[in-house]
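Example S7 (structure tokens).
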């Protein structure tokens, strides 16, 4: 019997980001969220900013979903998105890994695997790695 995994699926116009459901502690609706408060100081990061690297944009709305990640007691990381979020189940065998040429670089940037359907590209992402890179980039800018 194939092994299935539950994912949080965050849908942009032509791609989906998949995050392992086991990484998320809770999710809450943020009806009046202001994206300007996102950043290293607050520990809240905007996934829509990451999506921009894929030529995707969030929805023009003030209603966001916040995901609080599981972590140790000292680590309080969360991210928000303006896009539709669902929990989906996908067989692990449906994911494609990347060739050795690309795998290490993509893994370092937080992309672990992909899944292509008829009209969607789905990327299984390591959200903690992506947020870690965001924190490093923000702290490096502050040192300049």
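Recovered sequence:
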């Amino acid at each position: 019997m194939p092994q299935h995994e539950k994912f949080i699926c965050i849908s942009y116009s032509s791609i989906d980001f998949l995050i392992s459901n086991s990484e998320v502690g809770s999710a809450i609706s943020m009806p009046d969220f202001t994206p300007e408060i996102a950043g290293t100081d607050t520990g809240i990061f905007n996934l829509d900013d990451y999506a921009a690297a894929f030529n995707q944009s969030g929805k023009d709305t003030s209603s966001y979903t916040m995901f609080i990640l599981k972590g140790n007691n000292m680590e309080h990381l969360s991210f928000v998105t303006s896009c539709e979020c669902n929990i989906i189940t996908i067989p692990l065998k449906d994911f494609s890994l990347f060739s050795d040429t690309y795998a290490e670089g993509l893994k370092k940037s937080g992309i672990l695997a992909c899944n292509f359907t008829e009209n969607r590209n789905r990327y299984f992402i390591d959200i903690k790695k992506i947020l870690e890179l965001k924190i490093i980039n923000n702290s490096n800018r502050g040192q300049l």
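Notes on this example. The chain has a mean pLDDT of 83.
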